[in-house]
Prior knowledge:
Helix content is 37%, strand content 19%. By secondary structure, it is of the alpha/beta class. Strand 4, helix 4 and strand 5 (109-111) form a beta-alpha-beta unit. The longest helix is centred in the middle third of the chain and has 16 residues, at 280-295. The radius of gyration is 23 Å and the shape is globular.
Amino acid sequence: MLKNATLPFSESAWIQEAHHKPKVVHFIGIGGIGTSALAQWFLAQKWAVFGSDISSNETTQSLRKLGIKVKFGHKKGNIPQGCALIICTQAIRPENAELKEANRRKIPVLSYPEAIGKLTQFYRTIAIAGAHGKSTTTAIVSMILLKAGFDPTVIIGTKLKEFGGRNFWNGKSSYLVLEADEYGGAFLNYSPLFTVVTNIDREHLDFYKNLNNIKKSYLEFFSRTENGGALILNQDSKILFSLKSAIKKIAKKKYLKVHWYSLGNPESKKIRKIIRIAGEHNVSNALAAFYLSRVLKILEKTALRAIGNYRGSWRRMEYRGESLISHVSCLVYDDYAHHPTEIEATLQAFREKFLRPETGRGSPRGSGAAKPPYLICVFQPHQAERLKLLFKDFQSAFADADITLILPMYQVAGRDIVHSSFTSEKLVKAIQKKYPKKLVFYLSNPDNLKKALNALMLPSPHPRKSAFSQRKSAIVVMMGAGDIVKYTYSLLSS
């Protein structure tokens, strides 16, 4: 059992002030999906929480409503008096004004992964990792544990309706459910009792450089699982399953139980019958959560009920509203997919949900359309090195979209060096050359998105565009990990 949820911080030698005074923590980069969740953990432990970020966003607005004091712009004056601890995102550089001030004042500084790592040592931690599907799997695991009465604390990389639209749940038990990111080797700070991995892929190559380094990092992550714990691993991930021999050695050394799951397992049929989120990749994510529930000795009917009740999360095939464009009813969705594998899986899931006649769901609700709706993907590439290293994979990722509009690349602060040969415009040209019949366009000014969609939906001499303009309905998927969501708002509000 958890001895003291506040022990890693509240009882440490870092606190110099009298015990009765409020504990004070400041976050540099508080608007991140991970740091914002950790900030809420501190708030739940009765700390005074402060933070800063470059600019306001949906997350910082939510934090302010909770009573967290957030400032914008990085200045040394942002650090409050009596600050006992600084936590910063991995993106913060040594020259950051607040970081330099913290060092001058000799305030202890932890990166977000280091802080989470300390937390995992005091909980029975369930860490969910993988290149794709982490958030959805973490969400389903959380729903199962809550349904079973475990009441875990949850730190997740998305927002859940069940958590009041937040990315944090303040549980009262000894369990912590954690989405474990591999970027920058973050998950190598964690000490889970139960480790779930959904897959391994060529991701974050700006940090890892090659697949071999990624594999080594995952093996090190497995070795951090506490003695006597368990590994729940996806057999369908070829790269992950190729490590089976090395995983077996780690498991033997640390007395770990290893559970491999696969879509070929009979449990998949039960999940397909009840799951409400589309796509085989989501059946796989739910299967991972189901196998974990078995390890925790949760009743099968309880786990299946939780899976069947799960409705999805923020920016994961999330329905945002309807927009009427040139008399065409467009159902607008948001999705976080930013890697070719994720894009392909998500578009396949949309096609399965709306466009396949055999499903009987060819028309969106209330549209009255006789023909299936067209599938339009509006994609914003995220991070320059990813676009460069996976350029060929991106070219075939949009095969399931009828129309693809690609926006200028979102550049990640502190990570990006733009490559002139690997831009959004060059990607569009490469796709057009490889698939000349595909309708793929570059939109240099995203503010003109609705205007561009209007043009696409008007009658046209182009036979495929004309066929499109005759449709009464369309699905528009706003896709990417950057700030594309602001164009979703403009599409719905204008």
